Amino acid sequence: MTAPSLPLAEFVVGVDNVIFSVDTDQNRLLVLLVQRQQVPFAGYWSLPGTLVRQGESLEAAAYRTLAEKIRVSNLYLEQLYTFGEPARDPRETTYGKRYLSVSYFALVRFADAELIAGGECPVQWFALSTCPELAFDHNKILAYGHRRLCNKLEYSPVAFDVLPEYFTLNDLYQFYSTVLGANFSDYSNFRSRLLKLGILQDTHQKVIRGAGRPATLYRFDREAFAPLKDKPLVFV
Amino acid sequence: MTAPSLPLAEFVVGVDNVIFSVDTDQNRLLVLLVQRQQVPFAGYWSLPGTLVRQGESLEAAAYRTLAEKIRVSNLYLEQLYTFGEPARDPRETTYGKRYLSVSYFALVRFADAELIAGGECPVQWFALSTCPELAFDHNKILAYGHRRLCNKLEYSPVAFDVLPEYFTLNDLYQFYSTVLGANFSDYSNFRSRLLKLGILQDTHQKVIRGAGRPATLYRFDREAFAPLKDKPLVFV
DNA sequence: ACAAAAGTGTTCCAGGTACACCCATGG
DNA sequence: CCATGGGTGTACCTGGAACACTTTTGT
């Protein structure tokens, strides 16, 4: 960055989070939204976001926003994209400063995700399929996040950050199906592919859920996975 | 982004470009650097960057920076990552504002890239292998860009944005070899894979370069590629 | 004739797809 | 004993890896 020769833009920098979760029981892909209480877009639902504070990194701001809305111990988070075109926020006209949003993408474990009520604004999971029109350019950000989620799932083990520690292969399959849509793969082929990777520990424990043969519980073997890191893995 | 409860960080927003090019003749992967004339880091080489102006989008700022250093008609450009931790720029202490850098990644055609001399600071291509220690956190940004370049090449047709319109299969092979390192694939396998994709038009023209059998000139068939867009293609 | 570069073909094997089929449990 | 879900096995095919071989040029 060198010296300017024309008036520089002044910026307000915030962080917006696309927080996904997967409800495997109901086969729903969920996104966390908050309902705005102030203008602009009062009453609209939007992605949870915040402005960045002094001494706070962008990622820390993302974690803070998340922690304000939801109590969760297991999650995956990474930076998504930065949106900063002129006029993406109507407040730009009011205050004469551009609103830049660094968006983050998160995937959280649904089972232990506890929404924090009693905050300033209502917080709620929405099925992605029934997601309303959002404030600002948040639909665009959400779409971007959804694409990233699908890609991440296919070539990285984020699913295991978010599944319970012990899970059946069917749990895993349901998880992938819910996110990627059905027909992403045959179940038995999915099984053998995953098992062949050698990153699942067989606990030899069985679990019975309703009728049918008991299912084996597996856990993700981080040590076995470590050497495969950065390798082009396929989980599809 | 909601109302704050603690002092907000103030930001200066800039754009930094990781501009790559491939010199297929000498088999070198190049990155464009400029030598800083002012403090901090006076004398150090750095990525070409600029501060964002009023009414200018981030991408426009990236294009402007590029255009100030280099005249080029064929290129590929996309956003890379946003760096905004506290203290990433020493000027933060001086001016009390945080320096946020939205980095962009570009790949330009080497043949018609003409460096613009006579600007404020020296501009020069560096072979990636002989790249010096850079100003700020630019080595980190560069490393990030290099990873992106390798990934992009493998599953998207950026190479064709940057090769001459008519090229031989060997040109294409050299290009990939230079970026991904030798041994990325056998030449004859590379040939058949690319031809089988059906996205290369045989012009039936031959070109003779020194000894050896004349090579067929191909061109990228954008129409044939269109339906394959967004599909998981492999160019490796 | 020989080297150099372009281009073709062949063999082998890993891994994906699409199924059919067997196993263990509840009702 | 049958429905339900878990789990195994197989036959087929595609596509990559390695490498031998042929073709067309310059010297």
Automatic annotation (TrEMBL), chains A, B:
One Pfam family from the record: WHD_AraR
Record-annotated AraR-like winged helix DNA-binding domain positions: 155-236
GO molecular function, a single term: hydrolase activity
Taxonomic path: Bacteria, Bacillati, Cyanobacteriota, Cyanophyceae, Acaryochloridales
Protein name: NUDIX hydrolase
Keywords, comma-separated and alphabetical: Hydrolase
InterPro entries the record matches: AraR_wHTH_dom, NUDIX_hydrolase-like_dom_sf, NUDIX_hydrolase_dom, WH-like_DNA-bd_sf, WH_DNA-bd_sf
UniProt keyword DNA-binding present: no
SUPFAM superfamilies recorded: Nudix, Winged helix' DNA-binding domain
Keyword Cell inner membrane attached: no
Start and end residues of each Nudix hydrolase domain: 22-142
Record-linked CDD domains: NUDIX_NadM_like (cd18873)
Origin species: Thermosynechococcus sichuanensis E542
